[in-house]
Amino acid sequence: MLSSSTPTQDGWPLGIGVRFAVDPNGTPILFLNDSTLKFALHCKSSFLVQLEQYGLRTPQCTIQGTLEKPEDTTALKKLHSVWEKRFGHEAGIWVMSSDYKSANPDPLRDFAERMIDEINTSNKEDILRFCNIYVDLYFQVCDAKMLWVDRLGFDVRFRSPLNDVFEARIPFPREVTDEKGAKSSINCMSQLAWEVEKNFHAAEFEKVKQLKKIEHRGF
């Protein structure tokens, strides 16, 4: 969590969740968009770092200092490459308070993590088949896992034979309203994908064409 002593243009203090890499000296590297950088640069800031560990312990520390953007173009490019190697490209959007208040919680929010663990553990072949059948690809997927599931579909990450890593969003045939509906949709999609793979059924659906290539090689 990054907090700055300078408020935004609206006068509100702002704390944002950020990921970070480190340079050879162990100094945190943050990659901020233009709107965040305008209020945070050259200001006193605090950076709360939490180490995720299993068990009861959750070590934390707060780093205090001033955010600076390197003036040396070569140094900036090197730091940027360190960031991209670990995280790739990231993008965020602003959400109006009225839109936030009018939004409804996703009905799968309490079950999604457990569902994903079960599928990644017990249904690996189904995930590979989902990627090969429902995503418009020019290669056969070598490895795949499900990242998240919600009422509209699920996100997958997969690896190509050249070791490139991609992510895609595969929609459900229709919106689901509960865990039972999500599992039913996944089972139906699994059966259809198997039939298409075995040439028992034609692929009478629109394949996903939007892919995101993950620049860092971690899977």
UniProtKB/TrEMBL annotation:
Residue ranges of coiled coil: none
One Gene Ontology cellular component: chloroplast
DUF2470 domain residues: 113-189
TM spans (from-to): none
Pfam families, per the entry: DUF2470 (PF10615)
PANTHER family with a match to the protein in the record: CREG1 PROTEIN, GLUTAMYL-TRNA REDUCTASE-BINDING PROTEIN, CHLOROPLASTIC
Protein name: DUF2470 domain-containing protein
Organism of provenance: Anisodus acutangulus
